Amino acid sequence: MEKILRQVQAGELTIEEAMKSLATYEELGFAKVDHHRKQRQGFPEVIFGEGKTPEQIAAIITAMKENQDDVVVTRVEKEKAEEILKRHPELSYHDTARILSWKAKETVKTRTGYIAVLCAGTSDLPVAEEAAIIAELFGSNVRRFYDVGVAGIHRLLEHAEEIQGATVSVVVAGMEGALASVVGGLVSHPVIAVPTSIGYGASFKGVSALLTMLNSCASGVSVVNIDNGFGGAYQAVMIDRIANGEEGVDGYRTQASTE
What we know:
Layout: H1 2-9, H2 15-22, E1 26-27, E2 32-33, H3 37-41, E3 47-48, H4 54-66, E4 71-74, H5 78-87, E5 92-94, E6 99-102, E7 115-119, H6 125-137, E8 142-145, H7 154-157, H8 160-164, E9 168-173, H9 179-184, E10 191-195, H10 207-214, E11 221-223, H11 229-243
Parallel strand pairs: 3-4, 7-8, 7-9, 9-10, 10-11
Antiparallel strand pairs: 1-2, 4-6, 5-6
């Protein structure tokens, strides 16, 4: 608020522009768009696309773009994405991840290191790619290690050294969800486990993997909800930011003071 008032005092902002900047959210009737999310948390509001109509999503996108917010929409199936792209053709659609995105301005990545995103099998790719794309959109470097499940553990061990070099790992697995425990026993960094709903009947649509991950005997494994690639990536990026010396909530690249 003080920054905005000083900009008005200096003639850099009109009163009308300042009032818009001070508004905590924008009322659309069916949604309240939180333009201050990035200022409070360092990340813009992310639109959860599932259950929303293309018209509703398009209207929220318009509001965010007008405020120069970065746009990220998760869980958007291809048919719905095509409808939205007719209204906002400047957005990019990440097919496997089911994510729509748009950057208000291009920024150069300044973080060193990388987040490792692993998935057990090809069927887990939509959730793994959701995690990978979100992490990249939020400014982190990502290295992918796919189809490295425990049924052929040699596939994982071939990449052990590179995975160990990551700042944090996001491990995506369905079936019995054992991959997170194995990775947790190989690395010295945090592991974010993401169970998926992939598996036969007794996997109970991801509950089996969820319980395996919660009961992991490997230390340093944290667990998010079933199919929540977004949540896993969000946590990983927060850890990555801290590891890169970033602090504050006024942007993606606020560097910690070295004084």
